[in-house]
Design brief:
single chain, 378 residues, alpha+beta, 6-stranded mixed beta sheet, 6 helices
Length: 378
């Protein structure tokens, strides 16, 4: 495509992104999975910060030492034990599992979903989970057990045990392999080791995809630490594209920064408009969701932030009426009344598990995000 035609396409695409992201109509597809004319299959990828999904058992941190797995310290999970600050016993843990599973089950499936898909997302990135055990308990819940969801997880070095993982539907995502890439602290301080970047590789709609789930350093740390995360994830993306220039890459997570913050816009290089993106650049569709529509995923001091983002490579930006390759379709911040505090001083905020030391039997201080994809069916 020459430069002038590319610019014209980019301008039309930008208008299309705005319409697709903010249009109030939720049911463009005539049927849940394949529409009539042209026939297109739809897929979803989601992310959800589960806000401290801890079990009630004390855990330990292990590491490979001289080729052997050895305990190196106790996890700082004491507040999520029965005798801890949150009095985290079986009843609260089971309630948390129920709430999280019912929310995950509704992603891309309920009547309010922008595209209603009977099988839900192909892959769901999650953060703030303690270990594989809580994921096994989660997918066994009544709301999810019939989905047959599989787990991708690796133990990480975070001292609290806060980790990332994937859940995936093997009918939609054909898993190949995964790897946990470490976050390299810029100061080389092993005592500040934190969660790394979990990379899951496989196929959606017979096309090679790589999904990277992250939970970048918190805002208790200065921006530098998140910028370092952005550069490191960008390097992972570039290395994957060197192996296969046609691969499609999704980067998702709780970035602890908004789309226009330095870690996202500069260090990671996730761009605001399609006309800024070549096939190997990253496009961030959430920039205008926050700054133009005022929609976010968490609230602080009365203002919305959008830390929970899913960005992707520009080779997903084909917006023809019947894309022959897997292509970006639209976004959704999954906001439902049951996920929002309906009364009290935190009215309008996401309904948390705890607030002010009080157990609310809520969900998370974050809302889930979803991107929808489509591909022509022959």
């Amino acid at each position: 495509m020459n430069k002038s035609r590319y610019c014209l396409f980019a301008a039309i695409s930008l208008i299309g992104v705005a319409i697709l992201s903010f249009c109030p109509s939720h049911h463009e597809a005539q049927s849940p999975f394949v529409n009539a004319e042209p026939r297109s299959a739809y897929y979803a990828i989601a992310f959800y910060n589960l806000e401290n999904l801890f079990d009630t058992i004390h855990d330990e941190v292990y590491a490979e030492v001289n080729g052997q797995r050895k305990k190196i310290e106790d996890k700082n999970d004491y507040e999520y034990l029965p005798d801890g600050a949150n009095q985290w016993g079986t009843m609260k843990y089971q309630a948390k599992l129920k709430n999280m599973s019912e929310t995950l089950a509704r992603l891309a499936t309920d009547e309010e979903s922008r595209v209603k898909l009977p099988l839900g997302p192909a892959i769901i990135g999650v953060s703030e989970i303690e270990n594989r055990r809580v994921l096994e308990d989660l997918v066994a819940q009544p709301a999810l057990k019939d989905r047959g969801l599989k787990i991708i997880h690796e133990d990480g070095p975070d001292r609290r045990g806060v980790e990332c993982a994937f859940l995936y539907n093997p009918k939609l995502f054909k898993y190949d392999h995964h790897v946990l890439r470490p976050y390299v602290n810029p100061e080389g301080d092993s005592h500040r080791a934190t969660r790394g970047f979990l990379v899951a590789s496989g196929k959606i709609a017979d096309e090679e995809v790589h999904c990277i789930v992250c939970h970048w350093p918190s805002r208790m740390s200065v921006s530098l630490y998140r910028e370092v995360a952005g550069r490191q994830v960008r390097a992972i993306k570039d290395s994957l594209l060197r192996e296969n220039p046609n691969a499609k890459i999704f980067i998702m997570g709780d970035m602890n920064d908004d789309p226009d913050d330095k870690s996202m816009a500069q260090a990671l290089g996730a761009r605001r408009t399609p006309d800024e993106c070549d096939d190997h650049d990253l496009f961030n569709p959430w920039w205008n969701v926050l700054r133009r529509a005022g929609v976010g995923t968490l609230k602080y001091n009365g203002n919305w932030n959008l830390f929970d983002q899913i960005v992707f490579t520009g080779n997903l930006l084909n917006r023809s009426e019947a894309p022959t390759k897997l292509s970006f379709y639209r976004t959704e911040v999954f906001s439902r009344d049951f996920l929002i505090q309906q009364e009290g001083k935190n009215k309008g905020y996401p309904k948390r598990t705890h607030a002010g030391g009080v157990w609310l039997n809520g969900y998370s201080d974050h809302l889930p995000t979803i991107i929808y994809l489509r591909k022509q069916v022959n």
